[in-house]
Amino acid sequence: MAPPAPFWKLRTLEEMSAAEWESLCDGCGRCCLHKLRDGDSGALSFTTVACRLLDVTTARCTDYARRVRRVPDCVPLTPATVREIDWLPPSCAYRRLAEGKDLPAWHPLVTGDPASVLRAGASVAGRVVSERSAGPCEHHLAEWPGRMPRVPRSRVA
Q1: In terms of C-beta density within 10 A (0-12 exposed, 13-18 middle, 19 or more buried), how is residue 31 classed?
Q2: Of 70, 76, 89, 101, which is least packed with CB atoms within 10 Å of its CB?
Q3: Contact 49/33 with Cβ under 8 angstroms?
Q4: CA distance 14 to 22
Q5: Which residues neighbour 89 within 8 Å (Cβ) at sequence distance 6 or greater?
């Protein structure tokens, strides 16, 4: 008999428990990077400048519970906001599930190992600078945060 399907294949984002919802985050930190939007064209550009609360060596929020109070433009993700915003990276589990896609092969819920995100090159850990020391975001434009990591399956496991 086949094992039961994982929860993300059985429930919609709206049907998930709080614990299931939180477990979808792979901890990559890409959503915590500043994005710039062109006022005329609306084009979105990614930067390597991280929110002041993001630990740039671990890609973890240093005050997750109070992040919205401490950073007023922090956007808490909900099923509704995930479907409305256009700046989540294509690797984001919330975005992927909202678009009817599966989790990437390197996602910790698939591999059972949180370090698989780093091995896959999906994490911002060690690749970004804090907004506290960055200077103008325009000096830190990068395309990789807005792209799906291309990683051989052998590097994931």
Answers
A1: buried
A2: 76
A3: yes
A4: 13
A5: 28, 30, 31, 46, 95, 145, 146, 147, 148
Strands of 1-152, DSSP E: 33-37, 44-50, 54-55, 60-61, 129-130
**Both structure tokens of 119:** 């091995």
The tokens for 93 are 């589990």
Tens-digit pLDDT string for the chain (157 aa): 878 899 999 999 999 999 999 999 999 999 999 999 999 999 999 999 999 999 999 999 999 999 999 999 999 999 999 999 999 999 999 999 999 999 999 999 999 999 999 999 999 999 999 999 999 999 999 999 999 997 655 555 5
Q: What length is written for the chain?
A: 157
Chain position carrying tokens 């950073």: 71
CA distance linking residue 152 with residue 105, whole number of Å: 10
